[in-house]
Amino acid sequence: MLVKIYTDGSARGNPDGPGGYGTILSYTDPRGQEHIREYSQGYRKTTNNRMELMAAIVGLEALNRPCQVELYSDSRYLVDAFNQHWIESWIKKNWVNSQKKPVKNPDLWKRLLKAVEPHEVTFIWVKGHDGHPQNERCDELATRAATTKTTTTTGRYRDRLKTGDGTARRPYQRRGVRMRSAYSSAGRLGSRTEAASIRSETDSGRMVMVYPSRLHRVWRT
Which contiguous run of DSSP H or E holds residue 61? Predict the structure, then answer.
């Protein structure tokens, strides 16, 4: 079963400024119907590299069964760590890099390794801001999440959402998610039936968009 995951991360005032990630999952069922799901989340304090890692983590953790995965990213930091076998070296050296310095973001690297474990994952680099439709959409999701007022924190900060009045609430209380038109690799979905099947929802504080259906159950509901 082949699932394609497209990812991107964004940070404003990098490092330690607001940031966000955008992730798209795409699966074509045996009938030839493409199913697409999107995730995005903003953070108050983070870095671009952490958001690149989180985008991949979220996509892989959404899968509910072992899959063959093609993961597309414009981050050399993410892709080369696997394709150039950096991560194997870091593990052997107890998370110390070739400059004999501690590897940054070990918490997310370890979480990503765990997310990769059940699957057969191929990491594929794509050039950013070069007209790749899914990469451009991920960038849009990540940028919007980074600039929205409703954000969570990352790392040592508390994982809560900030409301307009300055109070905090749990992620599942988030409301007001806006939905955009669906698309597929073949172009935008055009029929009324397809449009009617598009749904948006929130999932643990992340913006989630699901279309045209979830009946295939390739990813978690």
Answer: helix 48-61
Specify whether the CB–CB gap between 221 and 214 falls below 8 A. Answer: yes
The yes-or-no answer on residue 155 being catalytic is: no
The residues near 64 (Cβ < 8 Å, ≥ 6 apart) are 217, 218, 219, 220
Distance of CA 200 to the CA centre of its chain: 16
Question: Residue 90 corresponds to which tokens in the numbers above?
Answer: 């870091």
Structure tokens at 4: 């394609």
CA distance linking residue 139 with residue 74, whole number of Å: 10
**Residue 213, token pair as written in the block:** 């259906």
pLDDT at 151: 56
187 counts as catalytic = no
What's the whole-model pTM score? 0.73
Out of 38, 139, 203, 205, the active site residue is: 139
The token pair at 155 is 């790392």
* Cβ burial 45-69 (10 Å sphere, 16+ → b, else e): bbbbbbbbbbbbbbbbebbeeebeb
Q: Which amino acid is at 95?
A: W
Closest CA to 29 of 3, 60, 66: 3
| pLDDT greater at residue 168 or residue 112 | 112
130 torsion bin: left (phi>0), alpha (psi -120 to 50), beta (else): alpha
Query: Do 4 and 26 meet the contact criterion of CB atoms below 8 Å apart?
Result: yes
From 19, 22, 35, 52, the catalytic residue: 52
Question: Which of 127, 149, 139 is CA-nearest to residue 52?
Answer: 139
Residue for token pair 């905090």:
168
* Chain position carrying tokens 């509901």: 221
Show the tokens assigned to 44.
């108050």
